[in-house]
Amino acid sequence: MIEPPQTLDRLIKLPEVIEMTGIGKTMIYRLVRRGDFPQPYKPGGYASRWSEAEIRAWRESQRQASLG
Questions:
Q1: pTM score, two decimals?
Q2: Overall number of domains in the chain
Q3: Rounded Cα–Cα distance for residues 59 and 25 (Å)
Q4: Domain annotation covers residue 54
């Protein structure tokens, strides 16, 4: 049996998160603090990176919520 290829989950920088979500830096960090947005990872200690898969899932959940 052949395994389907795994989708790579990239860690993306804040500007790409902003572009994908359409919301600004301040709102992103506000939502993170409230627990309403995916937490960033700190792979190098200082720099924040987000899971692209988690951002896509969050965006889809927001779309579903707006559809009712």
A1: 0.83
A2: 1
A3: 16
A4: yes
